[in-house]
Amino acid sequence: MDDHINLLQIAKELFKRFKEDEISSLAAELAYFFLLSLFPFLIFLMNLLAYLPLSSDVVLDFVAQYAPGNTMKLIENNVRHIIETQNVTLLSFGVIGTIWSASNGINAIVRAFNKAYQVEENRHFLVARLMSILLTFAMILVILVALLLPVFGREIGLFIFRAFGFTEVFLTIWNTIRWLLSAVILCIVFTGLYFIAPNKRMKISEAYPGALFATVGWIVVSLLFSYYVGNFGNFSVTYGSLGGVIILLIWFYLSAVIIILGGEINAILSKNSNN
């Protein structure tokens, strides 16, 4: 009974904070930086694929799991264009553009989390920017690992299957597990983000609840929004050729709301534990 009361209290506090902490405005700002960093990141990633045992189709298949509706066509067209014109200049631009845009997004997350914990940002500007850049590199690394796991995971599964003579059921279970690893990695990224970004000393265990919420929430919201866009939302009627961009922005906005809410949940739990 107490657990239900606590959950109800957290929900009420979260609803109250949604307006007080201007979560909607912060999420809109974050969505803008997400959009700015998307294509520079793709430029960087596609040029990097030349040095990795991955094809552009693997990246697109990974994005297609979550990207809603017409956005995949928009992303794919740009990716194909990037591949056709890839060179060292594009790689350099991709690195600089990704780091700068994504670190601006991380800065927006830092401000949102500091507001959630009701603390001031007193870290030096260079320290804060360096932290944002390091988190950006960490996110790029984790995304690469998430892309590599399905490829190498399949080979590992086949090796175990042949070595031990398991049945076909093993391969089915293994394929399910290796795709779930992407969600696990995502949860680890969120945990690190909630642990490092706020200007507050905390334990890893205090960052985990929000990370779990953000992981599950982001996957569910992405899948539901993708289903809505595919079956009910006809954005091209209202926005014409900009429909794909608008869908992408809404997806980024919903993702940003989920990320910020995860930080707010951690802040609420931290406040309740100190009372």
UniProtKB/TrEMBL annotation:
<feature type="transmembrane region" description="Helical">
    <location>
        <begin position="88"/>
        <end position="110"/>
    </location>
</feature>
<keyword id="KW-0812">Transmembrane</keyword>
<dbReference type="InterPro" id="IPR017039">
    <property type="entry name" value="Virul_fac_BrkB"/>
</dbReference>
<keyword id="KW-0472">Membrane</keyword>
<dbReference type="Pfam" id="PF03631">
    <property type="entry name" value="Virul_fac_BrkB"/>
</dbReference>
<feature type="transmembrane region" description="Helical">
    <location>
        <begin position="179"/>
        <end position="197"/>
    </location>
</feature>
<protein>
    <submittedName>
        <fullName>YihY/virulence factor BrkB family protein</fullName>
    </submittedName>
</protein>
<keyword id="KW-1133">Transmembrane helix</keyword>
<feature type="transmembrane region" description="Helical">
    <location>
        <begin position="130"/>
        <end position="149"/>
    </location>
</feature>
<feature type="transmembrane region" description="Helical">
    <location>
        <begin position="209"/>
        <end position="229"/>
    </location>
</feature>
<feature type="transmembrane region" description="Helical">
    <location>
        <begin position="30"/>
        <end position="52"/>
    </location>
</feature>
<keyword id="KW-1003">Cell membrane</keyword>
<feature type="transmembrane region" description="Helical">
    <location>
        <begin position="241"/>
        <end position="261"/>
    </location>
</feature>
